[in-house]
Each structure stands twice: as structure tokens, then as C-alpha cells.
Specification:
Largest sheet: 5 strands, mixed
CATH class of the largest domain: Alpha Beta
Strand content: 15-25%
Radius of gyration: 26 Å
Number of strands: 7
CATH architecture of the largest domain: 2-Layer Sandwich
CATH superfamily of the largest domain: GTP cyclohydrolase I, C-terminal domain/NADPH-dependent 7-cyano-7-deazaguanine reductase, N-terminal domain
CATH topology of the largest domain: GTP Cyclohydrolase I, domain 2
Bound molecules: zinc ion
Structural class: alpha+beta
Number of domains: 3
Shape: elongated
Helix content: 25-40%
Length: 237
């Protein structure tokens, strides 16, 4: 339970401003307060101080220190800026939108069969460990009067991959983007990936792959379409 006293009453000797919780009371649990609420005062003073902006570089320098290394060692001097650049690159998908990618790349066409773009390589970052997971995505759809440029399908995969992700959500997002963009008769997305968080830590399984899929429309409702999809996926393996 937080300290119930308004900060101004906590210690008149120290000027205290309303804390950042906006409640006007101290956030320090009352069980941890001394009689004069000194911790409370300190906490409130800390909370009302202007946060010092930490540079991207200093963030990484601190991480390097935390693992017991010396960020001033010659080999590590440029690591913070390189690491930050790498992270920015790996998460550049936040700067793109589905609309931006598909703009001008949707065409009218009467094709009635399955369109499959397979083996689209991707590299993503698992949002639980910030470790890479990578593999291939197979994206198929059956047009209903509109098709999308093939390279755009790959770019869609890339956009969702270059974010903090879980494979399950990424699979759904690719399918939903395509469903929305060309309103096809059906969409199928299959993603196969290896996760470094499983390979190099935890259970350390080097050869396991995770497969996720999302089928909609005719791929879900029509067993024949589903069977055809499976056979062309298999045939092109
Ligand atoms: Zn993970």
C-alpha cells in the first residue's frame, strides 16, 4: 500500500512537489517508510527530477558494463554505436506501412488459380528475448479479380518480420494484410523458422523448427483447394 500522505506533508524541511503518479501521494509502500518518511521524501524528489536523457550509445555502454566488460576497451569502443545501428536496422519495419508498400502495386486480373510465393527468407527478432528467429514464409492466395505485385508480398513479409515479433502473430499479420489489400477468395500463410532463443539458451535444441500457418477463405472451406495448396507446396520443395 502506498504512503497515504501528500508529498508536501511528508517533510516540511524539504521542498517536495507532487509526484508523478498524479495522485498527490507518495508511491513508496508505507511498510518501507521510516517515521519521518525520509524514503518517501527521497523517492518524491527522485520522481520529480527531470529525467536525464540517456544517449543510445550510453545505453549500450551500460549493458556492456553490466556483463562485466569494459566499454572503453579498444575492441568495444565503437560497439555501442554499431549495436544501436544494427538494432535500428533489424526493427526498420516500424517505419513502413502496408499501404505504403502496396501503393500502386495492385492490379486487376482474372486469374482463378492459386498464386504462391514461396521461400521468402526473413529475419525477425523474438519479442521475449530480443534474439533473432529466421526462416522462410510461403504466401499463397486465390485472387478474386485483383492481384498484387510479387515483390510486394516479399516486402510485406519483411515489414512484419523487422519488428519485435512472435512467429504466430507475424503469420496472422501477413495474412490479414493480404486479405485486406486484395480481398482474395482465400489466403494461406505458412512460416517455418528457427529461433535462437531456443537454440542457444534454455533447452538448446539446435534442429527444431517452428511451423505456423494461417488459412482463410477457400483454403479453409474447400478441402480440394487445401489439398491443391499442399501438393504445390510439396512439389516445389
Ligand atoms: Zn524468444
Amino acid at each position: 500500500m502506498p504512503c497515504p500522505y501528500p508529498p508536501a506533508l511528508v517533510d516540511r524541511a524539504v521542498p517536495v512537489v507532487v509526484n508523478l503518479t498524479g495522485s498527490g501521494t507518495c508511491a513508496v509502500p508505507s511498510s518501507r517508510l521510516s517515521r519521518r518518511h525520509s524514503r518517501c521524501v527521497i523517492r518524491n524528489r527522485m520522481m520529480t527530477m527531470e529525467p536525464t536523457p540517456i544517449s543510445d550509445e550510453e545505453l549500450y555502454r551500460e549493458l556492456i558494463r553490466k556483463i562485466g566488460e569494459d566499454p572503453d576497451r579498444e575492441g568495444l569502443l565503437k560497439t555501442p554505436s554499431r549495436a544501436w545501428e544494427a538494432l535500428r536496422f533489424m526493427t526498420q519495419g516500424y517505419e513502413e506501412t502496408v499501404e505504403g508498400i502496396l501503393n500502386g502495386a495492385i492490379f486487376h486480373d482474372d486469374h482463378e488459380g492459386i498464386v504462391l510465393v514461396r521461400d521468402i527468407e526473413f529475419y525477425s527478432l523474438c519479442e521475449h528475448h530480443l534474439l533473432p528467429f529466421f526462416g522462410v514464409a510461403h504466401v499463397a492466395y486465390v485472387p478474386s479479380g485483383r492481384i498484387v505485385g510479387l515483390s510486394k508480398v516479399a516486402r510485406l513479409v519483411n515489414m512484419f518480420a523487422r519488428r519485435l515479433q512472435v512467429q504466430e502473430r507475424m503469420t496472422d499479420q501477413i495474412a490479414e494484410a493480404l486479405e485486406k489489400a486484395v480481398a482474395p477468395k482465400g489466403v494461406a500463410v505458412v512460416v517455418e523458422a528457427q529461433h535462437l532463443c531456443m537454440m542457444i539458451r534454455g533447452v538448446q535444441k539446435q534442429n527444431s523448427r517452428m511451423v505456423t500457418s494461417r488459412l482463410s477463405g477457400c483454403f479453409r472451406a474447400d478441402p480440394q483447394m487445401k489439398a491443391e495448396l499442399m501438393s504445390i507446396l510439396k512439389a516445389s520443395e
